[in-house]
Structures are given as C-alpha cells and as structure tokens.
Amino acid sequence: MMLCFSLAKQGEIPMRFMKVLLFPLLLGIAPVAYSEPTLPAVGYPEKEYYENGVVHFEYSYLNEKFHGQVREFYETGEKKGEFNFKEGNLVSSKEFLKDGKLEREIKIVGGNRQETQIQYYQTGEKLRERTLLNNKLNGQETEYYQNGQLKATRSYRNDKRDGYAKGYHNNGKLQGDWEFVDGEPVSALIYYRSGELWMKHHFENGKLNGITEEYDKDGKLVAERYYEDDRLVKRQRVTGFRLW
Length: 244
Hints:
This is Toxin-antitoxin system YwqK family antitoxin. This protein is mainly beta and 244 residues long.
C-alpha cells in the first residue's frame, strides 16, 4: 500500500502534509496544487516518529514542495517505502515487505505511470511478477511454483490478454500454449506431462468451437472432439483413417 493510503487511514500523517503528499500519490503523476503554503520554502531532511520513538518517515522539500526522497518505515524500524519527488511531483517509488523484499515499484516516465508488482507466497518465495501502465496490466506477467520454477507467462495489453501465454507442468515441461487477441483466445495447444502434444483447440468468438484434435504420445491422431460455444457435443475416436 502506498504511503498516503496506509498512513492516512491510521490518521498518522500530520495535517500540514496532506495537501502536499496525498494528491500526487493518489494520482501517480498529478502536479500538486496549493491554496496556501503547507511547508516552509526550503527544508533539510526532517523526521516524524511513531509513539515508540521509531522513525516513521523522513522527508525534505524545496520551494514549499516535497523534493528529493521521502522514506517510510515500519513501526519496528524496517524500511517500508521510498518515494522520490521533484518539485512536488512523484518521480518514482518503491515499497518493501518487512523482510526487505521489493513488493512494488513505480516510475513516472513521460507522464505515464509504469508499475511493477511482485507477490510472494506466505513462506517468502516469489509467486508472481507483473507490469502495469497507467494502472492497467501491460506487458508480461510471470508466475512461479513455490520452488522457484517457472509456472506460467502471460502477455497483456490494456488489461486484456493479448499475445501468447504459456503454462508449465511442475516438472518443467510445457503444459499449454495459448494465443489471445484483445482478451479472447484464438488457439491453444495442450501437452502431456511428459511433453508430447495432446490436444489442438480451436476458438471462435473467444469460445471453443469446431473440432479439437486429440493425439497419443506417439503423435498419432486418436480422437476428435466437437465443441459448440465451449460445450462438448461429442468425442469420436479415429482409427486407421480420418472420418472424412
């Protein structure tokens, strides 16, 4: 959670900081507007503290605006976040878990908010990493098994699946290979755990339609499945030669 969200909910940001800190962090890129000065013109790094005496956050400012780095800490002293400002505008930020692992990184480039999110298993291993552009999934999402082995990769554009997605069995063999266009699947190859091709799926309007070909591990066509709008109509074995 970003600095302003976590602290504002607890009522821990001094009121004189709210106008300066809240808007750029909420909007990610918005310049700060003032109805009255909220900070002195120039300030060296200053500190705010928890009631137990531990530093809560450190900040500096220039010309009545945050400038440089704002750092937030957990109540137990571990670093929680780093927020870099230039004349009141958020430039970049990093957020950390208590054990020091990076949880989220944001960069403002050319007016666009570029974000990397990282999620972890409860035991600390990386679960998923993905990228967002202006709060929408864009680019590649990568997912891992708990042992660190690759589990899946997916491509997004404007919050929709677009491009190729691959899934892997926990033995490292390819499990599936999908293609998406504007959020809808157009084709998929499914593989046996041992790595051989099992099925070829075909889609229309984002749903299974038509014939799905089924193969044995030797690569021989053994059956054809017939789908209508994701519903399996029938499965017919192929022996010796094709049906038509």
